[in-house]
Design a protein that fits this description.
This protein is mostly beta strands and 139 residues long. It has one domain. It is built from two helices and eight strands; from the N terminus they run H-E-E-E-E-E-E-E-H-E. Strands 4-3-2-1-8-7-6-5 form an eight-stranded antiparallel sheet. Strand 1 and strand 2 form a beta hairpin. The protein starts with a helix and ends in a 5-residue tail after the last strand. Keywords: Signal.
Length: 139
């Protein structure tokens, strides 16, 4: 009898509502649809309006023309649906900062605009500028 009561209690507790964090429509993986070039962004909320950001870019080699690629990680504070990612170049003799504006321009769409100082992170033939779409946009 005691076993039956314990089992029934466990089943009742397991069938209750599941409490979870609030859904954040900005978090997730974003990627570009640009042929011949890959641009991705990953956003994860740290707290409030502060997000961890990871960007990557890649252009493959074409014939004799070399490709390039790179990435950058940092944090951004969003004001409304916009923010600027600022990451200092490590070990630079003079302080240089890569700045990339992030702007949510439509539902599930993120516009990235490289402002300055980012060549160290991706090479001369690539950039972090472009539009990327949340991978869940078509669901």
């Amino acid at each position: 009898m005691l076993r039956t009561m314990i089992f029934a209690g466990a089943m009742l507790a397991a069938s209750g509502p599941v409490l979870s964090q609030a859904f954040d429509e900005l978090e997730g993986h974003y990627s570009s649809q640009t042929p011949g070039r890959e641009l991705t962004a990953d956003l994860k909320r740290i707290n409030g309006t502060r997000y961890a950001v990871s960007l990557s870019t890649m252009t493959p080699m074409r014939g004799d023309v070399g490709g390039c690629g790179g990435g950058i990680d940092g944090e951004v504070v969003l004001t409304g649906r916009r923010g600027v990612l600022r990451v200092a170049e490590p070990d630079a003799p003079t302080p240089r900062v890569c700045e990339i504006e992030l702007r949510f321009t439509a539902p599930y769409e993120l516009s990235l605009q490289e402002k300055n100082g980012c060549t160290y992170f991706h090479g001369a033939a690539c950039e972090f500028t472009g539009k990327v779409t949340h991978d869940a946009a078509g669901l």
